[in-house]
Amino acid sequence: MLVQKTIRASKHFGVKDIAVAGGVSANSHLRSEMKKAAGLNELQLFIPKFEYCTDNGAMIAEVGYRKCLQSMFSPINVTAIANLEL
Predict the structure, then answer these.
(1) What is the DSSP letter of 26?
(2) Cα-flanking dihedrals φ and ψ of residue 18, to 5°?
(3) What is the pTM of this model?
(4) What total number of domains does the chain contain?
C-alpha cells in the first residue's frame, strides 16, 4: 500500500525524486518493492544504508525513563491532539 500510494502521489504532484527514511526504511521487502516501482516509473529513489535506518522509539523511551525518574507523569485522562497548533 505504501509503495502504491507513493507512486500515485509522485505522479499527481510531478515528483521525480523519492526518499524513504526512518524505521520503515529498514524493511527489506519495502526497500525491494520501492526500488522496483521507482525503476518502472523512472523515479530516482534514495534509501539510506541499512545501518542508518532507525526510528525514534529508543529516544522516546529514554525521555520517558528520565521523566519517570523525576516522577513526572501525565494524568490518566490525558489525550493526544494530532493537530495541536503550537
Answers:
(1) G
(2) -125, 135
(3) 0.65
(4) 1
